[in-house]
Records
---
Amino acid sequence: MKTAIVGASGYVGGELLRLALQHPDLEVVQVSSDSYAGQAVGRVHPNLRKRTELVFVPHEKVEPADVTFIAVPHRSAMGRMPEWLASGGFVVDLSADHRLKDPAKYPEFYGVEHPHPELLRRSVYGVPELHRDALRGARLIANPGCIAIASILALRPLVDAQLIDAKRPVIVDAKSGSSAGGADAGPAAAHPERSGAVRPYAPVGHRHTAEIEQETGLRIAMSAHAVGSVRGVLSTCHAAGAGPTDDKQLWRAYRAAYANEPFVRIVHDPDGIHRAPDPKVLYGSNYADVGFALDPRAGRVVALSAIDNLMKGAAGNALQCLNIAAGFPETRGLEFAGLHPA
Amino acid sequence: MTNCPECDAQVDCGAMIAGEIFPCRDCGTELEVLATAPITVERAPKEAEDWGE
C-alpha cells in the first residue's frame, strides 16, 4: 500500500517511518515536514540513513495515498481531515484531534471548537484491546495519547470485573520521558533543565484525562510528571476497591482481559528484580506491560502500566491499528522485543 | 492440571515427578510438585541466605 506520513520529522513521525519502511505491505512514498522540506530524511532521523532515500516535502504537497499517517501537532489536523479522507484510503491520526467523541470536550481540553464534529462520530478510538472489531475496515482511526492508552490498559480490567469503586475518583500518577514532549519542546526540554528532572508538569488538568474518562467511565484525577528518561510512560493508578479482593481475583481480571492479546503482558512477579511494569525494558517495542498491587489496609487497588510512549503510546499502536483495519496480521512489523539492558 | 497457588493460572505438570520445581508461566512463581496423584503443587521453598553454611 502506498503510504504517506504527514509530519514525519518529529519523533513520532520518525518512529512511524522506521516501522513502515520494514513493513512488507507498506511502501512509503511521501514524508512531509514544513520545517525540513527539501532535506533528506537521514539528516533528521540518523537511524534511517541507508534505509531510505526519501526527502521531506511540505505538507501541502502530500498526495492522496492508500494509507496516510497524520503526526502533526494537536489542532493542526482538524481542518484538513476531510481532504485527507477524500482519497478513500486509511487515515490514522496520531494527534488528539479525533479522539474525543463529545465535541464539547474540545473547547474544555484543547481550547478550540471542533470544525468537523461529524468526524468524531466516524472515527474509531484506536485501542485494539477495546475496539478491535470497530477497527476492522475503519477509514479514520484516532490514535490515543500515550498516557491515556497506558492508563486505560491498566484500568479497564478492573472496571470490567467491577473490582473498583467507580463512584470515587481514580488517581492517575503518570511519569513520562522527554520524547513525549516532541522534537520542538522548547527550553524546558534543554538538557540542563531536563536531565535528572522529576517535574510535575501537569499536577492537574492534563488533556489525556478526557480520553481516559471516555474509555473507562471513571472520574479521573491525574497528575503528570516529566522524568529524565528519553522514552517511556509509567502510569500508576490508585483506585478504591469495590470490596474485599485478593491477588487471585485481580489475576483473573487481568487474565480475562489480556491473555490472548499479542501486545499486553501481565507483570506481577513475586520475586526477582523485575516484579512490576517498567518502561525501561520496553524501549522500541510495542508491548504494554500491566500489573497491579493490592493494599488491603487502605482498601486500595493499584494498577500499573508501562509503555514506550513512541511505540505503544504512538507509532507502534498506530501500525497495530492499521494492520487490523487493513486486514494484515496484527503483529506485522511490530515483532521487535525491546532491548535489555537498555 | 492444577492451579498456581499464587495467581490461580492453570499449570500443566505433565510428566513431572514429586520434588520437581518449575516456574508458573503466568506469574513466574517457582512451584514445587508435592504429589502426582492427585497433582499437588505449592510455592517452592526459598533457600535461606546462609544456605550451604
---
Amino acid sequence: MKYDICIIGGGMSGTKAGVALLSRKKRASVCILSAGRTLNPTSREEFKRLGGDIFDNCRAVSSVMGENRVQAVVTDNDIRVEASAFVLSTGKFFSRGLLSDMDGVYEPVFGADVEFEADRSAWSSEDFFDPQPFESFGVRTEGSRVLKDGNVIENLYACGEILCGVVDVDKSVREVCRNIR
Amino acid sequence: MQEHQISKADFEACMKCNICTEVCPMYEVNPLYQGPKKSGPDAERYRLKDPAFFDSNLKFCLNCKRCETACPSGVKVADIIQMAKLKYSSSTHPLRDTALSSTDLVGSVASVFAPAVNFALEQEVASKAMGLLGVDSHSVFPKYASEKFVTWFRRNARKSQDSFGSQVNYFHGCYVNYNNPQQGKDLVKILNACNVGVKLMKGEKCCGVAMMANGFRDRAAANAASNVEMFSKVDGPILCTSSTCAFTMRQEYPEVLGVDNSKVKDSIMLATKWLFEEVESGRIRLAFRQDFRMKVVYHIPCHLQRLGWQMYSIALMRMIPGLTLAVPEQECCGIAGTFGFKKEYAGYSRKIGSKLFENLRSANPQVVATDCETCRFQIEMGTPFTVMHPLAILAEALDIEITKELNETDN
C-alpha cells in the first residue's frame, strides 16, 4: 500500500493529526494504522469524511529503513505501507507505543531514542499521588522529527503522548502539521 | 516477564478497561449475556478453579472477534470464550447442530439432489419440520448448486491451468463448492485473464469453523490437521475467497484448536490481498470496461476486520473507474455463521443486524459488497439488496480481452 503520509497510531493525537493534515493538504493521501479501538469517534469520522483511510486492527511492528529515512512500515498482519512521510503517534505504555523491561524503555517500531531514567528505582514514586517520573518518559525529537542513535530521521515525525517531557498533545499535532511539507 | 507467562490467550494482560464490552454486539441486545470481559478473562479465573463456574450463557457469544479487535492489551477474549465453550458445554440440539456444522457432508448430498432440495427448502412444510429440529422458521437457506465447483473445474478449467505464466492454489471452501460455484469461477476468470493459473488442492476439507461454533472440537481439529498437512505439500500462495475460512485457518487453528500451522500460515491469504499486491508491484495489470457503472456500499465482515485486511478489498474496488464506493463504520451483521439459523438465537441475530440494515438502506446502493458468505445470507434476508463478493464485482468490471493482452506481453 502506498500513501503520501502514513500515521502510525489511531488514538487521540493520530486522528487529530490526520484531520489537520487532510484539512491543509486536500490532495494528499493519508492513512492511519490503528491497533485496537479508537476512542474518539468524532475525529475518526472527520478523518474518514476528508478522504483518509483507517487500517483498523493493524499494529505496526517493524520498519524498513533507508539512509536516515523510513521507507515502509510493516504491520503484525503482514501489510506493508510505503509513504513519503510517517507520523508516530502510538502513545505510551498502555497502548504499547513504549515497551519496558527491567533494564530500559523502548520504542518498538523504529527503535527510536527514548528518554528515561537510567536508575530503575527512580522510575516511579512510592506515593501514588506524587508525580510519577515514568509518565514523562518518551521518544526524543528535534523539530518534531524523531531521533535514532542521535541522528534525525528525516521523514519520521512524532506527536502526542509518545513524546518525552510534559506533552501538550494539540501543540505537538500542530507542529507536526507545520513541519510536514 | 512476558516470557514467563503461562496462560493461553494472554488473559492476565486484561486490565478490565471494558472496551470489549462496549463493542460487543450481543451485549447490546441481550441482557442475559454478561459481555466479553466477564465471560472471558474474568470468569476464566473461576473456571480454572472449578469447572462448575461455567456459565451456559456463554452460548450467546457470536465469536465475531470484535472484542479482540478492540482490546488494547492483545487479550484474545473471544478465544478464551471459545475454548471454555468447547471444553465445558454440551449441545441442546445435537441433531440440528451436527447437520448445520457438517457443511461439507450436507453440501455434497444436497448438491446431488439440488433442484429437489432447493424446492423443498422453500416449502412451508420444510420450515415447520426444521422448526421442530430447532432451526429458525424465518431463515432463508442458501440454495445448493447442481454442479459443484470442483466438478465444474475438472470439466472446464483444470487442463488449461498449467499453460499460464504462474500458478496459485485456491482453497474454495464449502460455500463456493456447494452453494455458489460462480464465486470460484469468477476468481478463475480474473486470474486466468492475468496469466495466472489456478490449482485446487487434493483432499481439501471444510476449514472447520462451523464445527467449532457448534461444539465439535475433535472433528474441527481433525479437519485442521488434514488441511495443514495438505498445505505443507503445495508450493506458492494459498488463496481464499472467504474471509472466515482464511481467518480460521490462520488464527483459530493454532489458538483455539491447538493445531500448529506455523509453516504454512504465511502462505494462507485472501485472494484480494494477493491480487492487490501483484497489481501494486506491477506484476499484474488490470484493464476495466469503460461502460461499467455501479454504486456499491461495502460491508466489512467482523472476521475480515480481525484479519485486518479489509483495505485490500476496498483498494481493489477503488481501481474500477465506474464504481462509486461508500464504506460505513463497521457493524456486525449478527448472523455469526450458523448461529442466526437457530431458533433460540435468530431474534437476537436480527436485532444485532438491524443497525447494519438501516445503514445500508439509507445508503441505498445498487449492490452491497462483502467478502463473507454468511454476512451475505444475513444481508439478503434483512434487506432488498443484491450482495456480491468484491471479486465478483471485479470480474464483472474487468475487460477480459485487454487484461489478457496486457499480461501476455510481459512474458
